[in-house]
Design brief:
There is one protein chain. This protein has a domain of 123 residues. It has nine helices and no strands. It has 178 residues and is mostly helical. Keywords: Membrane, Transmembrane, Transmembrane helix.
Length: 178
């Protein structure tokens, strides 16, 4: 029985190093771990959706539920996509036409994150207006602000992701000819 739970042991040294790395430079932390940000977004969206669905229905609450649901689906899907699926999405014809053949997953991830951050900000405005009637929307508005920050960090981190391809890298100082 002990062998089954052996992988579940928590290494507090690794946890402590992760916290120190996060405190030193949060953007580098999230750029190196984009799945952790997606996991945090999905976790917060799950709690938010449950709270919204249990709250009172009022004018505008359905739009907030729709925004949260779409955000949940997009965050969940982009979090579980494998590299081959992401490469397949990048190679879709309409994405290649829009980007003139220069699309990368980090650009698509940036676009998705900015769109979700924008919709989450609109959701915050609706929830603050709804919070004047029902206090549950104040809780969900605070969660939406945290989601807005996570999506913004994710968008900034997406620009720093490196696919390992040197197509876009240029040397600042070209090699001097002898």
């Amino acid at each position: 029985m002990l062998r089954i739970f052996a992988p579940c042991k928590v290494d507090f040294q690794v946890f402590k190093e992760g916290i120190f790395e996060f405190m030193d430079n949060p953007i580098n932390y999230f750029a190196s771990r984009p799945e952790d940000v997606k996991g945090g977004c999905v976790f917060l969206l799950t709690i938010q959706l449950i709270s919204l669905l249990l709250g009172h229905k009022y004018f505008g609450s359905f739009l907030v539920i729709l925004i949260s649901g779409v955000s949940f689906v997009l965050s969940g899907l982009t979090g579980i996509f494998s590299k081959s699926i992401k490469d397949g999405i990048v190679k879709l014809s309409f994405i290649q036409i829009i980007s003139n053949g220069t699309a990368r997953w980090s650009y698509i991830q940036f676009t998705i994150s900015v769109a979700l951050a924008s919709f989450t900000f609109i959701s915050v405005i609706f929830q603050i207006a709804l919070a004047t009637q029902y206090t549950i929307y104040l809780f969900t508005a605070i969660m939406s602000v945290m989601l807005f920050m996570l999506y913004s960090i994710e968008a900034l981190a997406a620009l720093r992701l490196d696919d390992g391809d040197s197509v876009e890298r240029t040397h600042i100082h070209p090699a001097e000819e002898a």
